[in-house]
Amino acid sequence: MYFLCFRRWFMPVMVFLALSGRLFPGAAQEVSTLLPDAPGAVQQQTAPSSNTTQQTTNQQTDQKKSQQDQAADELKREEQQRILGVVPKFNVVDSGEAAPLTSKQKFHLFWKSSTDPFIFLTSAFDAGISQAQDNFPGYGQGASGYFKRFGASYADTFDGNLWGNAILPSLLHEDPRYFRKGTGSVTSRILYAAETTVWCRRDDGTWGPNYSNVAGNIIAGGISNVYYPQSDRGAGLTFQRALSVTAEGAIGAQLLEFWPDISRRFFHKRSHPTGVVNGTGAAPDPDPSSNPQH
């Protein structure tokens, strides 16, 4: 402790004596030549560095803003995409390349996808099939049972989209959209489409495990225990439902991948190559029938 106290006052005193010229004659003059003549000199020396830093910050801000504007324009075009003019495919990138979405844009895409009239129609249809097969018997039959099934079906879709396409992608910096491959053999494209349920593109352009989709399905399955009948609850059923939704996603991805080809084949719609997927080749333009702006 004493040694520490000694060090605290020893060095300041030595510096003071040196600067005053009492300890080392001529040291004050030598030290004075090393010091700036005025504070302005320091400011002049540091100003260029400060300006450079400010310019770099401004460039990064402008680049980020430009990316956000580009993503907004691309999102507007994607929101016009439909299969046969009915089935929405708002989360499909046909060109293979796209600017990363902000968290706000991911939530916007989730809301747009979850409130489209087609989603309510599919929930109504699913509820009818479920009631005809007497699934979830705890809901009963009649109008009451039907609307309970309808609400459960829509809640499943809404919760899955909320967690898998908005909350988790924002937290984990994953892109919730499907990036169409568009080239290569049929087998390679089938495998690519299927694996996107567990392998996705990230905001920085790299690819990795699709934690958002898998975890989102599990979370949505867990939430469904709140509104499903008592006989249809439990951890086992939660993971079973999550696995089923993931498998359905792998099947649905096939339609997203091959729809432009189907459209050209049966509806004689043409498209021309544009964009690159993973640097492996060109992907065709969005199907004109699914994008009114083309």
Task: Characterize the structure shown.
By secondary structure, the chain is mainly alpha-helical. It is 62% helix and 7% strand. It is built from nine helices and eight strands. It has helices spanning 2-20, 27-34, 39-78, 103-114, 117-132, 142-172, 186-195, 211-223, 235-267; strands spanning 82-83, 87-88, 92-93, 178-179, 199-201, 207-209, 273-276, 282-284. Strands 1-2 form a two-stranded antiparallel ribbon. Strands 3-4 form a two-stranded parallel ribbon. Helix 8 (211-223) crosses helix 9 (235-267). The longest helix has 40 residues, at 39-78. 27% of the residues are buried.
Q: Roughly what is the average pLDDT, rounded to an integer? A: 79
C-alpha-based Rg, rounded: 31 Å
The helicity comes to 55-70%
- Walk across the major sheet and give the strand order: 1-2
* Tally of individual helices: 9
DSSP E strands, number: 8
**Portion in beta strands:** 5-15%
Question: What would you call the shape?
Answer: globular
Distance between the amino and carboxyl termini: 80 Å
- Write the element-wise H/E pattern from the N-terminal end onward: HHHEEEHHHEHEEHHEE
In terms of structural class, how would the helical and strand content be classed? mainly alpha
